[in-house]
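User: Batch of two.

Assistant: Item 1 of 2:
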Amino acid sequence: MNISRPTFGRILEIAHRKVADAIINGKAIRIMGGTVEFEVSNMEFGPGGFCVCPKCGFKKPHEAGIPCRDERCPQCGAVMMRESYFRDLNKDKEKGGE
């Protein structure tokens, strides 16, 4: 960005204040000034898919309206998670292990 660290700190502090003001006072937040990309693939949540146990790997179809995190694995009792989230966690672990 070719700016000094103190300048970057001031810009960040102003941004934090603006976001806090918007959240507290119910204002809209508009993101502009460049290309913005949202990676939707991480959030493949919706009515379909599977719930997976991160401990034992048990897998069951996701039930609409019931978040996977609110369910327990019938085999080991661990908290279930969405299959796409589980895949992403494993990808991150593999990257960290290289």
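Item 2 of 2:
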Amino acid sequence: MFIIDRLLDSDFYDVKNLIVTALESFNSFEMYINIIKDSFIRIENGILRTPFMFVPRSIWPDKPESISRVISFSYNPSQYNTGGGTVATLFGDMYINGGFIAVIILCGFLGFFSRLIYNTASYTKESYYSECFKVALYSFFTYYTLHFYRGFFSEMLWQLLLVIMSLFFLRVLFFKRN
């Protein structure tokens, strides 16, 4: 309600500032456009890095850095020097790794996974435990979906796979479909 009241009580300049703030900043958007134009990120910084994420730098000192670190190194050195990174979001990560085709594949994956969760919730027998399972399933799905919109797919993949395997194991162990 605060935003609607603010919109109704303000002039155009305030509305523009509100929109700019809501979109984080146009500088970030401009930076993401430049990342795509400059095409300095290699595939080993993204998806191909995923299977080797568990290897510590003490064993593999030249291990490729994540996309967020590479972006910070090129566009925000002070953030890079303090150990931070710049997020390109889920769709930016997919676009950087595989172009427009990867974004389409990702949307298909999200749709398939959403349908799988819906079917699991719809066709499990009703009981107290199945209701708890459904709440947990939807909570994890919502959390990871929102986190992916703000983070990197390639950096969250292992956590997501662990949660999916755990939930699948619980489903197989405790619940049967009608």
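The chain has a mean pLDDT of 72.
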